[in-house]
Write a structure and sequence with these properties.
13 helices, Glycerate kinase, domain 2, EC 2.7.1.31, alpha/beta, six-stranded mixed sheet, Glycerate_kinase_sf, single chain, Rossmann fold, five-stranded parallel sheet
Length: 396
Amino acid sequence: MRILIASDSFKGSLSSAQVAENIKAGILGVYSDAEIKYISVADGGEGTVEAVISGSGGKMVNTPVMGPDGKMLDSFFGILEDGSAIIEMAAASGLPLVPERERDIMKATTYGTGQLLKAAMDNGCMKIYIGVGGSATNDGGIGMAQALGASFKDDRGEEVGFGGGQLSRIAKIDVSRMDERLRRTEIIVMSDVTNPLCGPSGASAVYGPQKGASPEQVVLLDEGLSHLAKVIEETLTIDIRNMKGAGAAGGLGGGLAAFTGAVIRSGIDAVLDMSDFAQKAEWADLIITGEGRIDFQSSYGKVISGIAGRAGKYGVPIAAIAGSLSEGSQEVYKIGISCMEAAVCRPMPLEEAMGEKAGELVADAAERLMRGIKVGTMQRDRACHECLGTPNNRLQ
């Protein structure tokens, strides 16, 4: 049996590669002669750079940047073997970078993300993939643009500060001093969300509360993004207000499109393209995917839906393993997942499930999955033997 493992990381617990290694251990406990390959995958959020580098080859580059709270931190990006760069904004402007008690969404900036883009161009990269999941920000990407030379002034001619709380002050945008290399650089935004910039489904309303925004702040931030879109359209003749995916990462998706000419793509699709998924899927008899939790959202733009959409073209059955199965998990059957297993199948403290036992739990889930598949294979072979009138020998 030839098995391809293509799982997302289990956030806060296991990396994509660690998940794959433990799934492999569970498989070999049932099918010791199985041929196994794996690719590390992600959807543009935390872990995307590691997943792409481990799956496609390349190197990591470390660089200091400004964090979302204005403090300096050590960050990184990847350079692939073809010379293109892979960035995850979470490594510069991500929510986990700021302690919960210190988070201030009104001031959180994407300036560090702009610094990562500049560092990639400094290293000669003329094609840059940027994952935009896991943000702490809601500034429409103005911080990113400021790091690359853009100017945002109020009606008194003064430069506005950092953060989404400053957006409503913007009266004039000047991009004449932005890094000229942007004109020659292809930038691809990797996003797992399709939200517009503003409104009930926009960046502020949907994701603002997750980043600590109060109801009052959500209103102010949404008004700020709407105002930014208006000034961008007046100045740059680019309409990002209703652009699909513009609301990703607190409007960074729209900001990248407006200020750098970036195009927005599905994060998982971009990663699968870089990982040569098509050839590996054609080779496989079974694909095992997964993520930390499978729920109703897993069918929309996440790793599992991306894998299912691609693998369906080759007629390869797909199974899924998750840390937990939540309400709506059965929706993934509709997108092509044949069966699924939860790693946590008995009551236990969260710290235990996500800590030292996490790998063991994933391996156990993989073994249960493969034993179920083996039973099905035995039944199939029995039916074939009965049809042919030959002795029925159990699979060993």
